[in-house]
Fold these 2 entries.
Entry 1:
Amino acid sequence: MPELTSDPLLLLLTAALSYLLGSIPFGIVITRAMGLGDLRQIGSGNIGATNVLRTGNKPAALATLLLDAGKGGIAVLIARVLVGADAAQVAALASFLGHLFPVWLGFRGGKGVATFLGTLIALAWPAGLAACATWAVTAAISRISSLSALVAAALSPVWLVVLGYPQTSILAIVLAALIFVRHQPNIARLRAGTEPRIGKK
């Protein structure tokens, strides 16, 4: 983490606004707008792109993926330009927590993978792209979204250090740990061999 040198009030405002941006449940907004029903009553009940894909609507899933990633990335970029590097990392954490614990849904949100990747790309794009590639390769081999997310999250601090962004690795470890916590049911199903594969309705 960089040293927090910006005005504490600015950092607090950054955190609040980033949280609100991160808490927008795009998966629910998109599926309702497209007449696909209540996403929380479909598949796993998760509000992320993987569960949207279970509706069979690939454009809706892609839109959810891009918007969930974009809200994290945009929060980071705005905070960096307007306040500084320390605010960018505050924005990354706050927007990620907003997705996981959105006030609009009783603090029951998604698992944060797309938002995590979006913030990582905005913070350190080479490491972010490496994490995305890790997800893609694991998904191509296993066809399991949750496993791909866990592998990408676990390796993200390594990519940050290897590619020259060690100051961001502590934040990545924190976010990756939260992803593992949110994926506990998936980890149990992976161990049991019952985790559904990508594209299964």
Entry 2:
Amino acid sequence: MAPSVLIAPSILSADLSRLNEEIKSIESSADWLQIDVMDGHFVPNTAFPFTQVQTIQTKLPLDIHLMVENPSEAAREFLSLHPKNITFHAEAVQKTDDRRALLQAIRKGGATAGIAINPPTPLSDIADVLGEVDLLLVMSVHPGFGGQSFIPSVLEKVTEARKRYPTLMIQMDGGVDDATAPLCIRAGANNLVAGSFIFRAADRAQAIASLRSSS
């Protein structure tokens, strides 16, 4: 049986001019806080460098999503903030030995270790380490920008991963709202990242509750 569903608001869609206030507004309702770290190379956007993330004030567990060309270097830096989880992209680390080394380094640093796959990447591309990760992130949009439309075809990968690993934390990120969340959960996801749907809502606690109740 898969664990209950966690909700991780993505601050990529928050008002960055009042970031800590924005985070405070969802702190009592959310489970994790997702921080999308982008280097402008792996994805065509930049966001949340270490110096900015250092200034975040929250009691929520930090979920660091590394969309960068050199996740090993970035992971070492972000581990100093004692995050709950750090996820890197399979597309950025393609050698099995390098993937294992990074998973081990993240765990040694005190966080759980996740691997992410973009919409075109098949589950078979991470068969070498899928049984060793703490979290699988299946992107349901092409990474880099918030507010994109959900890509339903990726649900097949979630279903397959859930069949093979019944207790794995499977996270979905991209276009998650009250219409797509039930699809994600039925496929086997148990950790949902949502940005625009939460931070553009008049009642953010209710928006989070609606995602959670989709289960």
